Amino acid sequence: MSPLTASGVAAMPLLAAAAGDGGGSLVSDIGFCLIVAGVLSLVFARFKIPSIAAFLVAGVIVGPQFGHLVTNQANIETIAHLGLALLLFVIGLEINVGALLRSGKTIVLSGLLQFPLTVAFGWAAAALLRMTGWAPASGTYLPIYVGFTLASSSTLLVVKIMQEKFQMDTVTGRVAVGLLIAQDVWSIVVLALQPNFSRPELGVVGLTFLGIAVVAGVAVLLAHYVLPVAFRWIAKSPELMLVAAAGWCFAIGTFGSHLGSILALVGLHVPMQVSMEMGALIAGTSIASLPYTRHVVAKVAVVKDFFITLFFVALGMGIPRPEGANVLLLALVLSLLVLVSRWVVFFPLFYLTGLDRRGAFVGATRLAQISEFCLVIGYLGIGYGHITSATSSAIIFAFVTMALATPFLYEQADRIHDWLGPTLQRLGFRAPEADRAAAGGGEAPAIVLLGFHRVASSLLWEMQKRDGKLLDRVLVVDFNVALHRAIAATGARVTYGDISNFEMLQELGVDRARVIVCTVPDDVLKGTTNLRLAEGLRQINPEARLIVNAVDFASVRAMYAAGADYVYLSRVETARNVLPVVEAALAGPLADFRRSEDAARGAPDARAEVLP
Length: 612
What we know:
This protein is mainly alpha-helical. Helix content is 66%, strand content 4%. It has helices at residues 3-9, 12-18, 26-46, 51-62, 73-93, 97-101, 105-131, 142-151, 155-164, 171-193, 202-225, 227-234, 238-257, 259-265, 276-286, 293-317, 326-352, 357-365, 372-383, 389-426, 436-439, 454-466, 484-489, 502-507, 530-540, 554-561, 570-587, 591-601, and strands at residues 447-450, 474-477, 493-495, 515-518, 545-550, 566-569. The chain has a six-stranded parallel β-sheet with strand order 3-2-1-4-5-6. Helix 2 (12-18) runs antiparallel to helix 3 (26-46) and helix 4 packs across helix 16.
């Protein structure tokens, strides 16, 4: 939710007061929550601190432990459960099990193994701490909850940053998103088993899964045969689409929570129940892969941030005053274990399942958060009597700590890899070496493409279409070895290399190339910029025709001054191609224009590029 929206909605208590509403009403409590959350989100945004941290701090301020602005525990519980159900519904909309199963080896194997291996690592670490006699590490269920805390990363934080950095369609981006989906699936299993940790009877566990299967089966059947018709009826009424989506969420949740009573009506007396939260998650997942889901997401997005805000504010309200330094110390230990688990479990798993060393390390480091699901699991764990409120508070403090650290870790992951590179090499995690044979041996390439992203993918296709022999003279330098086989299949030569390392580029013959193209924009580049590349490349190859990628107009003059022969901006090139389409549209229907363009250039959907 934007701060402006939060502040606007926060005016509701004033209206309620004018109508004679009591100061302890639900409306007043929500209003106080949104006022403080709105102000803090402005301050936190100014310092580039994740908004979730602002919401948690807002909860601390207005809650009964500190500010006493909201003191009615029943209201707090209402806010928390309402927000939790909507949050899980939205998360369910992002889970596409079919897409997960169709993913590559790295995603599938990592998705299957990462969660249980990380839980085992967390359990072992907590068990060792408990052996020291440290009071915060005591408790029968603490080790398993520590494992759950370490095992999942934050979908909200990771996807948000990747979208901002335009890295959703990179290899590491796709692996990260695939793993996040797998973690969500594992979390569903945890939520199903969680009520029975204290009495792990096979019959009870079996009934839990059977209940989930019944609810999921009913949800899928309705989603396939009933909802499409219903949503078509209301597709042109946005307000009804929103109401229908929320109604679907709570209908499945209510069905699950009263499953035993419903079965009793037909003569089946089975003690079977699925929580409202699990039902909401199933409701979202059941429609995640259906064609009208994007419309549901678009409509739910209107209120999604509102309920997410309330949920995290409610979590913040539940944070008690730290009972001494032990709670904060446990939070620090959990935060360190999160980071260590990414390097001890995630990184080797990514490496062994196909990613190169840099991609595996960087991807693992960027997933060093605690998942929103873990907060849910911890929150429910208090109610089940598995953990204390102090332990839950430590998990929340650790969540905030890693959320604050995420932007830094995201930006510095490559540098951390380079710093630890020699150690990783000695441990057997070897980086791919630049392949001089693939680079042409002693023969200098005529054209060098530095980096491989969207521009390079489309450029190779255009070369292949116009003159296939030209590809024999092309060298692609990129450290993403997962794409090398597909690049080589086009006929171009490809080799591993860090494009910011000019000594390596000289070894590959870039200093003798006739044309050098920097294909990756600055907002995707890691550890360098196109301006620095232009300066360094001009020094090692004064004679080459140097073509450089810019993302803003202010950089163009500096790039020409650094030695670039031509600077291109994707936005400008796109505009130049779209303008004739606009002019043709003014002259009449575009069918003939489209046919002529497809005949001359080929249909876009027929392009078999390396990057889809």
